[in-house]
Input
Amino acid sequence: MALEREKFGLYIRIKWGLVTLIGLYLFIGYPLGVFPRNAALPALLALVIATLTSTLMTFSLRRTRTAPLLSHFSMISDLAIILVTLQLSGGAENSWLFLPVFIIFLAGYIFDLRTSLAYAALASLSVATIFFLEYRGFLPHFSLYQMPEIYWKNPTRYIGFATGMAILYFVGAFTSGYLNQIMQETMTSLKKSLAESKGAESQAQDSRKAMMNLMEDLGKARDDLELRVRERTAELEEAKANLEEKVSDRTAALENSRKAILHMMKDLKEDMNKLETIDRMKTEFLSMVSHELRTPLTPLKGYVKLLLGGKLGTVAQPQVNALHVLERQGDHLENLIDSLLDVSRLELGKPIPTKKEPISIKKVLEEVAEAMAISIDNRGLALQMDIPKTLPTILGDEIKIKRVLSNLLGNAMKFTPKGGKIQVRASSEGDQVRVAVIDNGIGIAKENLEKIFDKFYQVDSSYTRAAGGIGMGLSIARELVGLHGGKLWAECKGMGSGSSFIFTLPTTAANE
Amino acid sequence: MSKKKVLIVEDYPATSEMIASILQGEGIITLTATDGPSALEKARAEKPDLILLDIMMPEMSGFEVAEKLKADPKTAKIPIFFVSVRATDENVKKGKDLGAAEYVTKPFDPFSLMEMIKKQLGS
Output
C-alpha cells in the first residue's frame, strides 16, 4: 500500500511535470505559431482540468489512505481528459494520441502488468471507438491543420493509426508491467536478502549481544567471585587472627592457671609440711612432756614407798593414811602420763608396748574395783560386782587392762549422779571374756555413741572440767583393748537411762 | 666382806638422792655422777660393783656411756642397770644388747629395785 502510495505520488508529480510542459508549450508555442491554433482551446481546457484534478489528487493523497482507488480514478479521468481533448483538437489528425501511453506505463508501474494491459485495452478501445464514431460521422471532426477530408477520412489511416496507437499502448503496458514485475521481484529478493541479512545480522548481533552479555556476566561473576574470595579471605584472616589471639589468650590464661595451681600446690605442700611438722612437734612435745613428767614422779613415788615401808623411820597412822593417798594419786598421775605417752605413740605410729602374759581377768577386775571402791563410795555411788566364780585367763598386759577398766569405772563415776549405781558384770562367752561396766547415769545420745571414742572427745566440755579428766581415756582404752585382740563399745537405751561400756578379750586358750 | 660400791648416774638429783638413801640403808657405798663424762671418770677411778645408768642425760646419753664403759677394759666387767623413763621394747632391747644386766623403767618401786641390786651384788 505504502509502495503504491509512493508510486501514485510519483504519478502525480509526473503529471504535474506534463501539465507544466504542455502549459509551457501552449503558452510559448501559441504566440510563436508552433502550437496548432485549433488545439489551443481544448488544450487550455484540458490543462485547467488536469491542474484541478492534480491539485485535488495531491491534497487527497495527503488525507486519504485509499491510494489505489484514487490512482484508478485519477488515471481514468486523465485518460478521459486526454482523449476528449485530443478528439476536440483534430482526433485522428493529432499525433499526440501517444499521450495515454504515459498513463498506461504508470498504471503498469503503480500496479502490475494486468492493470497496465487493462488500461492499454481501455485506451485502445477508446481510441478505436472515437475513430469509428468520427469516421461514421457520429462525432464531429475538429480539424487541426485545416487538411482536406480525404486526408484524414480514410479507413486505412484510421485503422492504421488506431492499430499503431494500440500497439504503442500495449508495448507501453507490457514494458511497464514487466519492468514493474522485474522491479518487484528484485525488490522482493532485495527485501528478502535484506531481511535475511538483517536476520543474520540481528542473529549475529544477538549472538554478539548474548556473547557480550555472557562475557559481561562472566566478568561480573568473576569480579563477584574475586570480591567474595577477597572478603572471605579477609574474614578468614580476621577469624584466624581472632583465633590466634584467643588461643594465645587462652594459653596465657592456662599458663596463669597452671602457675596459680602450682603456686597453690606449693603453698598447700608447704602448709601440709608445716602442719606435719607442727603435728610431729606436737606429738614429740607430748612424748617429751610425758617423759619429763615421769622423771619427777620417780622420786615422788619412791619416797612415798620408802616412807610407807619404814625405811626412813617410823611413821604414825595418820601419816600412813596420807602417804596412801599420795601413793594412789601418784599412781593416778602415772596412769595419766602413760595415757599421754600411749597417745603420743599412737600419733607417731609407734607400737604401744604390750606384754603378753597370762592374767586372771577376775583378779584384775577385783583389784581395780577394790582400788576404786573408796572413791566410788565417797561420791555416794554404789558398786556392784557381778563376776562368776571362775573366769578363763587372758593373754595380755595387766597394767593396760587395769587402765582400761579404771578408765571405764572413772567415766561411770563422772557421769552418774549421787545415789546412782555402777555395776561391773563379767562373763565367759565361748573363747572370749566379756566385761560390762553399767551405770544408771545420764547416758549417751545415740549420735555420740561412736564419737566418744574419738581422741580428746568429751560429750560436754563442762564435764571434762568438773571431772578433771583429759578426755582421751576412751580412745586409748579402745586402742588398748584392740591391742589385745578385743573390742570395746558403748550402748545406751536412751538419755537418762544410763550407759553400758562393754569390752571383750580373747581367752588364753583362744590365743593358743 | 668389803662394802659394795654402786655408781648412780642420774641428772635428776631427787631421783639419785632417793636411790642413794635406799642403798645407804643397806650399807652400800654410793657414788653419784650427773653426766656421762664424769660417770666414766668415776667408773675408772672407783671401779664400782654396779652402775645404775640413766639414759636421757645432757651431752652424752646413757647408751653412749655404756658403750664406752664396755669398750674400756678397766670398766668392761662392771655390771650396768639402765634406769629410764623410756619403756619401749626397742629401748629395752638396745640396753640389753649393750650388755646391761637389767633395764628398770621409771617410776620404779624402790623395794623391787633394791631386790634386783642385792641379787646382782650377791652373785
User: Anything to note?
Assistant: Strands of chain A lie at 357-360, 382-386, 393-396, 421-429, 432-439, 487-492, 499-506. DSSP finds 13 helices and seven strands in chain A.
